[in-house]
Specification:
The chain is an alpha+beta fold. Helix content is about 25%, strand content about 25%. The protein contains seven helices and 18 strands. The protein has a five-stranded antiparallel beta sheet with strand order 6-7-13-11-12. The protein has a four-stranded mixed beta sheet with strand order 1-2-5-3, with no helix packed on it. A three-stranded antiparallel beta sheet has the order 15-17-16, with helices on one face. A hairpin with a 2-residue loop joins β9 and β10. The chain is globular.
Length: about 300
């Protein structure tokens, strides 16, 4: 437990349940949850915070499992207008780290810029997209990013150009403790109606092929070289198979979606232990049966019970 915390202008809540902030709707409490009023409030807080206190960033919770024992230290959530702004100038778009990827795609259509349509298929925010080089349908963040600005754990402002990220598939070489504040992208001028039509196609495809109305967490595993994760999950026999944590602390169980077998879902009263345990069980089974290593794409944070 944290004894003292710096004064803030935003919200600072102790012992705050995090499940409601995640798409899986599971997980324990944060020792403290900080929702800064703006970037200056965040920087000042980090400068004054004891450097030994862990800091974890949580976006819209679309690609994360918060473990049942909660998260130690301070969880930072960038929410509201100060972190969600989107502006366009010429062929560039600048978006706050709290802006939804899908809203950035729509803004690109309105501005008549192509290249960002794939963001309509990613259920997260710009901050998360920067951290993991988010992508889908053959495009990635590295293809359109110009630069990004953030704040370090010590509260210092930093700016990174695309080359500084060292992006590879679902990975960045940028320091993990940077909290991204905004990013600038470059698109290519195009007919706004054509861009909107492509976004509509991506949105429709996602609705038909992914369990977006379930309590889910996006793609569970990265695609191993030469393989599709969903096919490996299928071959190992895990599509639609209910799993409950074997330690007796689980809830109603979790499963891989019948609609898309690289998406785990909470069909009712699953716990984080059920969901993470399912992923680990599938990884072990695929390794045993098919001799392929599945790597987590979903981030897991916090402590087990």
């Amino acid at each position: 437990m944290i004894d003292t915390l710096p004064l803030v202008r935003g919200k600072l809540l102790r012992d705050e349940p995090l499940g409601p902030f995640t798409w899986f709707r599971v997980g324990g409490k944060a020792d403290a949850l900080f929702i800064p009023a703006d970037a200056g409030d965040l920087a000042d807080f980090l400068k004054a915070l004891d450097p030994d206190v862990p800091v974890t960033v949580l976006g819209v919770g679309s690609n994360v499992i918060v473990r049942d024992g909660g998260v130690e230290g301070v969880v930072v959530r960038l929410a509201g207008r100060p972190f969600a702004g989107i502006t366009t100038e010429g062929d560039t778009i600048t978006a706050g780290a709290g802006a939804l990827d899908s809203m950035v795609a729509k803004a690109s259509a309105k501005a008549g810029l192509t290249g960002l349509e794939f963001y309509a298929g990613i259920p997260g925010t710009i901050g998360g997209a920067l951290t993991m080089n988010a992508g889908c349908y053959g495009a990635e963040t590295k293809d359109i990013l110009v630069s990004a600005r953030g704040v370090t754990r010590a509260g210092e402002r930093v700016e990174y150009a695309l080359a500084d990220f060292g992006y590879t598939y679902r990975h960045s070489e940028a320091p993990a403790d940077i909290i991204w504040l905004e990013a600038t992208y470059r698109g290519t001028p195009a007919d706004p109606e054509a861009v909107s039509a492509k976004i509509a196609e991506i949105t429709s495809r996602r609705e038909l092929t992914q369990p977006i109305r379930e309590k889910t967490g996006g793609s569970t595993f990265k695609n191993p070289p030469g393989h599709s994760s969903w096919k490996l999950v299928d071959e190992a026999g895990w599509r639609g198979k209910l799993f409950k944590a074997p330690d007796g602390k689980g809830g109603g169980g979790a499963m891989f979606s019948e609609l898309h077998s690289n998406f785990m879902i909470n069909p009712g009263e699953a716990t984080a232990a059920d969901i993470e345990g399912l992923g680990d069980a599938v990884r072990a089974d695929v390794q045993s049966k098919l001799n392929v290593n599945l790597e987590w794409e979903i981030k897991r944070i916090g402590r087990p019970l």
